[in-house]
Fold:
Amino acid sequence: MTVTMPDLQCLAPSHIKCFEAYIPSKPDDMLMEYYGCSSLLRLNNNENPLGPPRESQKAIRDFPPKRASVYPSGDAYHLRQRLAERFGMEPDQFLVGNGANEVIAFAIKAFCQEGDNIVTADKTFAVYEWVARFSGYEARTVPLKDYGFDDEAMLAAADERTKIFFICNPNNPTGTYWNRDKLLNFLNQVGNRSIVVVDEAYCEFVEKPDYPDAMKLLSQYPNLVTFRTFSKMFGLASLRIGYLAGSLEVVDIIRRTCVVYSVNAMAQVAALAALESRDHVENTRALVREAKAYLDYEMNALGLSTVGGEGCYLMVRLPMSDSLAYRKLMQQGVMIRTMTGFRFPNFIRVSVGDMPAMHTFVTCLKNILRECGHDI
Amino acid sequence: MIATQVSLELAAAPEFFPVARAVAEKASQAMGLGTAEVRRVAMATEEIFMSLCKSAPGKQLAVRCLPGGHCVTIEFVFHDLNFPLEYFNMTSSVAADNEEDLENLGLLVASRIVDGFSVIRDDGSRFVLKLVKEKSYPQHSGGAVTSLAPLKDFSVRESSPEEAAYAATQALGLYPAHALPREFFYPQMLADMLDFGRVRAAMAQGPAGEVGGIIAWDRPPDGNMVECHGPFVFTEDRNPAIAEALLDFCIGDIAKLPIMGLVNRRHNPDIPVHYFETVGSLPVTSDDGARFQAPAYFRQMQEDPGCIVWAHEALEPFLEKQYARLCLPRKILRPSGRPLAPKSRSVLFTEFDRRGGAATFWPVSPGRDIPQNIAAHLEMTKKERVANVLFALDLGSPWQADFTPALLDADFSPRYILPYAGCGDMAFFSR
Structure:
């Protein structure tokens, strides 16, 4: 017996039918083949050029292959214990997910129902908006003000059906951040009527004294939830591990939507080891500091404006289409991120890598500017 | 307008014919078509339904009526390998002594009484035949328009249908016809398109509410490409900051959609060309006989992951040159060249732009008669005095490569490629 295709128009909800899947880029070998380059310098995903801390590298090397056949701890038990010790909190105040992307989905599923909305910025990490939309909830996106989240406009965009505010602090891709006063003022204005998520994926890169640590505000604001990841500073992007923290009561609600066993065992041990690292954060910060200053200087010398406060990335405005620049750079083996998708046309975002990588990028960018007839 | 479609599932049997006709008729009336257009929709539905009763008797068929703001689309979804699509060639004629021709006279009639049709055939035998009937609109009579004094300040926001219709009349007075899309000549049509969401527009506004410029862009329900019209700037100084802000708004609106590209094929001096790549140009003859090159501007909206294209060997040199110039990562493959059935007949869809004196042919189906069919279509456009004839080839469909030799023999030349504009890249030819 053969069954014909079901009527997908009837089966699929309207919010799914009008949503298109995100298509990730092809693997490096395929891209290199298409673009005819013999190597690929990835400066597109804000990965740590130093890789994981030594402690994590050892944990990965020591991971017994036979353990691949055994299910991991379903709720990252040991990692949560260690996080609790580190931050002076309860283990049940943490939820570990398959990357921070997964915990975004947990939070939205936990608090939103039909007719609800979330409020975030229009030019920020896109996953808050995507998850809300493909889950059938409205994503209210507020324009940035001076490249930063606009607190007043976000409050104005909210209503009684706003369940979550998402603040990316520092913001990806602009690098702006809310200082402690601004965050506290916002939290006070929201009161207890909505959840406020502060996504601190890049917090370890920030060295400014007025940058607020949301983890320390959790006891004061039980509606506050913070997201962190091991993908950026701790260089474990390919293992997919991130977490959220909040009050016991809020996390208890979010846990109900959590898919247990979604974080693999190697990720758990590597993350646990990362928390023991002593000099990794400082070494990375020093590298980023030097390379970002160099990059900023070179871009300005080329007459290109840059946007980049905190974080391991820099936005550069080009006198040409960013997608054309992407293709031309790819032909030279350099991969950056186009910013059209972030609603910054003609901008590219460059991940700050080590100095040789930055030299290569600058040389290749000069080549394409020259090719396109720009005086440099 | 409430965007509700009407669907009907039934068997292709004569006893259901009144049901199909009545549904199409009543639905298109409810969706806003006038009496004359409703009658034509009913007639076209009748002809197609009866043809299906003959070619696929008793088989399951779906008829869908979809509102479109300025138009109504009737879709027929059916499985029938024998459906005589060749009668949708605009060149088809019926010989009085040919019984088969006479049997399919209805399809010929149907193809002529609607404003557009397209056919999608999936890998199996499933066809989706779409007929489009537009509402009738009065053409704007034109009139003198003067540019505004430079604006000290401006902001850009989404335009309401009424505001866009007004701005279109301003553009009509300030720009040559070839720079403007068809709907600008029918402001009510533009307003209906906006109201329905088929088109979106943004306007620049001065401190006293002056309309300083407009950009409009299509939002097709499917497809990888968005076409923008403008920006058009109405100030004396043609302030480029207004043009850039309008274009930024348009790009921002589609930035998070799965759109591969933004295209602009109606040049005007306000377009910030550094936002685009010039993929090529077409030689165009205007109403008054003047000839000029019409550039096609393209902006890729996503990072290009690379893809394959299917091409006849005769097109390869052009493609290689263009892909190298545009840095587009492509692998050019040659189709296997499977022989077609001896009686197979090709089908071309003709899209007319009467105002621009242009016709574009789109392959619908391959056949053994491609050279003759292209020649017949060229003869038709000659008789109808269409000055600009284009041919669009989808390089993502291997079978379309078969059209290349006949196109080149008919003096068509490849002009430019639009990446990802069809199933794959589209190549545009003109003579």
Summary: The mean pLDDT of chain A is 95. The radius of gyration of chain A is 21 Å.
